[in-house]
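User: We ran a pulldown and think these components assemble together. Before we commit to crystallization trials, I'd like a predicted model of the whole complex to look at. Sequences follow.
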Amino acid sequence: MKYNFSDVVNRMKPSEIRELNKMASSPGIISLGGGMPSPETFPIKELTEIMEFVMKKNSDLALQYGNTLGINPVREQISKMLEKTEGIKCNMENIIVNSGSQQGLYELGTVLANPGDTVITEEPTYVGAVSAFSANGLKMEGIPVDHNGMKVELLEEKIKKLILEGRKPRFIYVIPTFQNPTGYTMPVERRKVLIEISKKYDVPLVEDNPYGQLRYYGEPVPCIRSMTGGEDVIYLGTFSKVMTPGLRLGYTIAPEPVMEKFNLIKQALDLATNSFSQYVAYEYIKRGIIYKQVELNKQIYRKKRDAIVNALKANMSDISTFSEPDGGMFVWVTVDKNVDTKQMIPLAIKNGVAYVSGQAFTTNGTQKSSMRLNFTFGSVEQLEEGIKRIRKTINESA
Amino acid sequence: MKYNFSDVVNRMKPSEIRELNKMASSPGIISLGGGMPSPETFPIKELTEIMEFVMKKNSDLALQYGNTLGINPVREQISKMLEKTEGIKCNMENIIVNSGSQQGLYELGTVLANPGDTVITEEPTYVGAVSAFSANGLKMEGIPVDHNGMKVELLEEKIKKLILEGRKPRFIYVIPTFQNPTGYTMPVERRKVLIEISKKYDVPLVEDNPYGQLRYYGEPVPCIRSMTGGEDVIYLGTFSKVMTPGLRLGYTIAPEPVMEKFNLIKQALDLATNSFSQYVAYEYIKRGIIYKQVELNKQIYRKKRDAIVNALKANMSDISTFSEPDGGMFVWVTVDKNVDTKQMIPLAIKNGVAYVSGQAFTTNGTQKSSMRLNFTFGSVEQLEEGIKRIRKTINESA
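Assistant: Here's a predicted model for the assembly, 796 residues in total across the polymer chains.
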């Protein structure tokens, strides 16, 4: 039998994260690669109680097919939670519950753009967005990021240029808070400019905010969706970082006409999101456990963030620059020397450490001397040892 | 803000099932519309015990991100289960665990075909396949179904014609056992012909088998994947009908090169399937509960199947023909009179009964005088009363 594969999947590159996770799961390897939360943060006792309660009270609904856009009481709880935590005002009718926010990204690429269309991302940007948009056959134009997130002064020029070329972008995708992979946060002034540009050129703005609640230092910056003029922003959120990732729950907030299109594509993708996970999340929010849990997570992750930043200061200051993020899950390291972090991976694995090379977060092969380091999964000791092993690897490869 | 939607979603029609479910959820309506299993069949006690066990023993893994293709011990259990129940021999490396088999259908449409390509389905066929393939921009060519499933003698002619037109089909999609929507089963002779034609013209064969285990009468017919020459058949299965649908678990078996492509698209779609659901399924199979549960389900559904068939005989024999399926979840009714079952829906709802009109299962607007009736969800009394209400509706609309 001959299988002829579609052009779309032939265009996609195998994810480096997948390969890395495989390598990184070997015994003895310290993985700074994946984007996994620490199992220490899983609220096992509370979830066990909730699961028992759900099975006792709502098993007929929690084990049955649910509505395509999500179970209504869950959508209502999400709407209340977002008002409390992010100052977002939205009706439950504007929320779709997804199988993780990765699915939200895929849906967006299907609903707002056709294969061959152009979208704007940050440069570098989240590897899962690259994967979702590539699968939809989209071209990505990256706007470089500095310590204050996307350089919005370059955005307007890029949009003008693309319009002149007949390639008006279909949307702008940003992770403004504790960006993945860099960890940088965009100040409120740039967020205002983003809203203005989006309105001026009629290009929808998509805000991905998986880490917003994980702030370890400094004052919160309002999310764009909550700001004046941000009502039309499409907003992606997730339970993976404030509950657990294994229950695969994310959500997208969008204006009415977009919701109708989400409904259609979600029906085709998987009919509906896991009902049981949704009922668990319902209780998790309603009982207020989520708010206590986030505080615990922050205590755990603050120490780890300090550990990796201090280890970088002690071991890497002389040969690299790195972000010192106020929150989130990642540090972005750019090595001064002419090191290719992708080529260096086999040596790193040999030395017992894994990371994701900068190239994975671009579509144009740049960011060769950078790497993304995760600090939420490993222990403080592993983070410290991992940085030493990275330094050793750089020394050996130079 | 102006949202420009993609051509793909504009090409998709809102699902009639979704609308119907909405209407059918009004109080007093007897729904023969959806494809839902009965909550009576949910193994609540066993699942509650399993969930507690999983949270105690494996919460660190069950709440964490899993591998993209599925958690290995679960894939291994599925492989063992399929050998036992369907006589299918496959390695766990050839299994991907999906968020329901709907996701398997969507993946297929992405991996094996490009937008604009043609695929072959049964006529009528499963509404979710129409939805998934439409979302991928595929053209569907339907081969009519009779009491013995797809008329395979028409298949070869169709393939030859399509090849001449430069539209060689990318795959053939069939539900050979207790077909959705008709309930018909394809005998082994036709299955052999399907394998031959697939090989002769190098067109991959896709076998969807959600209902295979739900046989109430007669001797099992082997699934195509288990037959001589069927090793390359792509096979879709689900836990929705033998465990519960709310946990959203399905799986696809495919040859090695297809698995690589599945891995890529699954990564883009939602990273991985719900880990918790997978660990629950692992215990559910390993403890052998699935086999006992299927026997219980069959007892419950056999009575319901008899109830709806008898009610049809008593109330509808004079004006319609209908299938008398040996298993599955659906009866297909074709009204003799020149009735348009889609136009009749509002009157049916007014009379307190819901069904899915035949048109939903085609892409060419045929099957206008047919309807699909589900018999697994309602009680025996509801099924009997529902058929009376349908007869009343036909009388009033004639």
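The two ends of chain A are 48 Å apart (CA to CA). That may be worth checking against your pulldown data before setting up trials.

User: Thanks, that helps.
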